[in-house]
Amino acid sequence: MSKVATFLKSDFVFRFRRDKVAVGSFIVVMALVLCAVLAPLIAPYNPYDLTTIDIMDSEIPPVWDKSEGDARFLLGTDPQGRDMLSTILYGMRISLTIGFFAVLLQATIGVAIGLLSGYLGGRVDAFFMRLADIQLSLSTLMVAIITLAVFQAAFGAELYSELAIFMLVMVIGIAEWPQYARTVRASVLAEKHKEYVDAARVIGMSQWRIMVRHILPNTLSPILVISTIQVANAIISEAALSFLGLGMPVNKPSLGSLISSGFEFIFSGSWWITVIPSIVLVVLILSINLLGDWLRDVLNPKLYKD
């Protein structure tokens, strides 16, 4: 029997199929991710191509507004005259990219520190855990706002707009590593005194190999759960920073930038510029969180209930 067939018959898949919320959340998340990844293929227009944008098409309502809607723009246009559907697809692509790579950076830093802290103990453990306590006492948004504002003031808005994705990934990633470090440390403390670890020491394996080859695989379940939740948190952080003007520039908007750009028009009647990207963001975050909650329950036998 192949590995794929074995996986499809596993208890994990069986529980997944029985949970309608998990199945629905997974379908929504995958649909939105595919739309974002395939944005250049499925978007009616390229919002980054200035030659396709006409300022005279600005603030056109969605197509269901019979009096002023335009069949060319299904979800209407924004203040720059860009097609909202295309801009949302490209913006969601940027939001997911930042969320994914920020979490990848968090996991890399946090898992490495958690392994070292839990396995070595002593002063190494005390140093890293106090560092994690200090980091956790600071709000991610507060650290990000100060860092990005100082960078913009020091190097200018033009350079920042070119490095916006890189800066957001770095700031959000570095600010959230303690979540992984503390979880991995707890798992390592529970694993490092077990017989298989003692056996690895006896046969002369190095500490690094024991940590990576034997202990790390037994911490993957909580890491997977945290990663799912943290992707949603990273997307929210990016959206909040973009809303405050410290995220993606107007010419390469994320979902947060789109919400921000239309906020001043919401009371003038152009509600769709803010409301539609907000709905997409809420649906994306809610679906990821529901999927993460299910993973947490199903990967912890003490929490899962049939």
Automatic annotation (TrEMBL):
Membrane topology term: Multi-pass membrane protein
Subcellular location: Cell membrane
PROSITE patterns attached to this UniProt entry: ABC_TM1 (PS50928)
Pfam families: BPD_transp_1, OppC_N
Chief location category: membrane
Alphabetical keyword list: Cell membrane, Membrane, Transmembrane, Transmembrane helix, Transport
Membrane-spanning parts: 21-43, 94-122, 134-153, 159-177, 223-250, 270-292
Residue ranges of every copy of the ABC transmembrane type-1 domain listed in the record: 92-292
Top-rank lineage group of the source organism: Bacteria
Keyword NAD among UniProt keywords: no
Alphabetized InterPro entries for the sequence: BP-dependent_transpt_permease, MetI-like, MetI-like_sf, OppC_N
PANTHER family, sorted: ABC TRANSPORTER PERMEASE PROTEIN, OLIGOPEPTIDE TRANSPORT SYSTEM PERMEASE PROTEIN APPC
Family according to the record: Belongs to the binding-protein-dependent transport system permease family.
Name of the protein in its database record: ABC transporter permease
Source organism: Sneathiella chinensis
Lineage of source species: Bacteria, Pseudomonadati, Pseudomonadota, Alphaproteobacteria, Sneathiellales
